[in-house]
Amino acid sequence: MQLSMRIIKDIIFLFATVALLSGCSSKVKNPEWVINEVMVVNESSYMDGYGQRHPWIEIYNNTAKTMDLGGRFLSNDPDNPKKYAIPRGDVLTRVKPHQHALFFADEKPINGTFHLNFLLDPAKENWIGLYDNDGKTLLDEITVPAGMLADQTFGYNQDGFKYDEEGTHTAQILERVTPSSNNAILEENPKVKYLTENDADGGLLTFTSMLVVFLGLIALYFFFKLSGNIAKNMSQRQVAKSGTLSAARSQSHLSGEVLAAISTAIHELKEDQHDIESTILTIHQVKRNFSPWSTKRQSLRELPR
Hints:
Helix content is 33%, strand content 15%. The protein is α+β, with helices and mostly antiparallel strands.
């Protein structure tokens, strides 16, 4: 009996130890919806579908399944959680896994689903909250500090990672502005990094581009000139093989007038050769406007002179 009680106590102690250790090592879980990046002052950054620039709020689907934002609420006032109701039935509110939805804080909800009915104030802190369909359950929140500069964003370096391993909130001013895109640089391009560090004004890139263009034009000029000479030589050889006057002209350096005179003389020679040969009689047709048999000149009635 004492042995069985000891075993039971050991099992209870073991479970208590495991529970205590697991509780100490547990991490703060990142929410399914994360307000991922916020821009308060938009002067030269992302434009909406109407070509206007307004503050924007990026929401990230932090799950491995497609989720719908329709029916949920966005607000900048904790006392009014139902300030903006995200419309239901819009297919664009269905956010795919690890993708983003972008809302414009322009106080123009008439412009569409992704245009909110409130503004963000750069002169003070901006609290933003996302509520569930009941309008009471807070899904996520973020507080953007006052004094944000133009085209500067506040959010998380890595999408959806609101808390680090110690459970610390990791929101900060971001170096890159990435609306509807990954906040983290997945792969650094060494060429882009080199140009950013050594050619900040773009002068080297401009000079290289112009050099490539001009070299290409020069190469095209010589290519077309060479191909034209080759085509000309080939055509002259073909004409020379045909044995025509064009061949003689193509192979000689005589002017067009001289060749025209030679061709005229050859033509006249061909026309007159029958009068020279004794065995050939050439008959030319004579056209007259009267018949020699019916003319009075040939009749006997004509009086002699």
